[in-house]
Amino acid sequence: MTDSTAEGIEPTTEGTEPAARPAASADDPNENRRQVLYWRLLARLFDSEEQAALESASVAVVEDIGLPAELLDPRASVDSIVQRHPDLAAEFDGLMVPDADEGGRDRAAEVRRAAMVSKVLLNVLATGSGTVSAGQLAGWQSDAGWLERALGCKPGQLRGGRGGGAGAGVSPTGTGGAGGTPDLGTLIPEIGPELAAIEADLVKRMRLREVLADPALAARLTPSMSLIEQLLRDKDNLSGVALANAKALIRRFVDEVAEVLRTQVAKASVGTLDRSLPPKRVYRNLDLDRTIWKNLTNWSPEEERLYVDRLFYRHTVRKTTPSRLIVVVDQSGSMVDSMVNCTILASIFAGLPKVDVHLIAYDTQALDLTPWVHDPFETLLRTNLGGGTDGTVAMALAQPKIAEPRNTVVVWISDFYEWHTDPLFESMAAIHRSGAKFIPVGSVTSSGRASVNPWFRERFKDLGTPVLSGHIRKLVHELKTFLG
C-alpha cells in the first residue's frame, strides 16, 4: 500500500455521503500518514499475515512524528511502552474520548492519536489462536485495562465482573482513566460484552491445569470472572498443588468483590430511629444544643449564667425487625456471574444483625447452602456449574422456609428459561400473594447483560413484581429498603 493509493480515501459513516475534503488536504502529509496507520490497523485485524508495504510505511510515519517504534511491535504491551516512555501514560488516558472542542482540526495530533489508538486496539482485539499462557492472559488483561482507560473508564469497568463501582477490575500499571465516560452506545456499541467474551475465550484456551500445577505460573494469574468460572467448572478434576492454587485464586477474587459490596451495603445498613421509647438518659445521648435552647428563659444577665432545669436527650436506638432473606440462585453456566455476586452478597447480609439468610442453588437439582452462607468461598466450592434448569426443585426447598411472609423477602436469580414454566410461576405468584416480598432478578452483574425468558418477564410485570436486572447496586438498594 503506497501513499498514492491511500490518498483520497476518507472513512464514511454508513448511510451518509462521503465528507468533502478540503482541497489543501491533498498537500497535507499528515492526512496520508493517518490513512496509512488506519489501513495497517484494519489489515492486521483481519489478516494475521504482515503486509510489508504497510508495515514499512507505518514505521516511517511513527519515527517521523517522534513516537517510539515499539508502538508497532505486536509483542510489546502498553505497560512496557509506558515504562520506557512514562510521558505517554497521560496520552493513553482518555485517548478515545471525543474532544469537547470541535473547532479546527489538528491533523498532526490526529496522526499521533491514530498511532496510539492502533496500538491499543491491536493488542486487545488481535488475540490470535492456539494455546494461551498465564503470562499472555495477564498481558491481555493489562492491555484491556488500557483500552478501557482510553475510553475514559476505569480498568475493568466495561468487561463486567468487578468494575464500575461494583469493584476494581484488573488494574494495569498507572492511574485510573481520565475524563468523563463517553456514550459507548454511540461510540463503540457493545464493546463491554465483547471484551468480556474475548477474555473468556483466552481463559478457555489456557492449559489451566498445567498452569495451576506450577506455583510460579499460577502466581501470575489475575483473578477475573472468566477465570473463576473455569476454576469452578474444573475444581473436581484438580488435586494437590493445582487445587490449592485454584482455591487461592477463588479466595482472592471473593475477598476483593466482598470488600466492595460490603461498603455498598454498609452505606444503608441502619433502620429508622425508634421513637416509641424514650431515649436512654446517659451522657453520650445528651442533646446539648436542644438543652441550651429550651433553657434560654433561665438565663441570668446579672450572673451571666444559664440555669438548666431540664435535660434533653437524642434518640439513638434504631428500630430493627428480624427479617428472613431467602436467596435462590440458578447455578447453570449462563448465570455464573450472578451466582458468584449473589453468593458473596448473601454472606454480607448474613453478617447483619437480625437478618436470617438462607441460600439455595439449583440446576436440575437443588442444594441448600445455608450452613455455609457466612463463607462465600466455601459456598462456591460446593456449587456445581452447568446442567439444565428446573426451578421447581428449588421451590420445594424455599417454600417451607417462609414462616412469616410479611417479614420475608425471596430473591430469585435466574434467566428463567425453565423446564416447568407454569407450575413454577404459580408457586412464585403464591409467594407474592402470601405477603412475602418476591424479587425476580435476571442479572446482578457489573455489565447487567442478561437474556431473560420473555414469557416470565411479562407475567412478572403483570404480577407487579417486574424483573430486576442490571448493576448489583440495584439489588442492594431493593434489599436495604426492605430490611432497613
From TrEMBL:
Gene3D superfamilies with a match to the protein in the record: von Willebrand factor, type A domain (3.40.50.410)
InterPro entries, sorted: Uncharacterised_CoxE, vWFA_dom_sf
Region of interest (Disordered), residue spans: 1-30, 161-180
Compositionally biased tracts (Low complexity): 1-27
Record lineage: Bacteria, Bacillati, Actinomycetota, Actinomycetes, Kitasatosporales
Originating organism: Embleya scabrispora
Taxonomy, superkingdom: Bacteria
Coiled coil: none
Name this polypeptide is given: VWA containing CoxE family protein
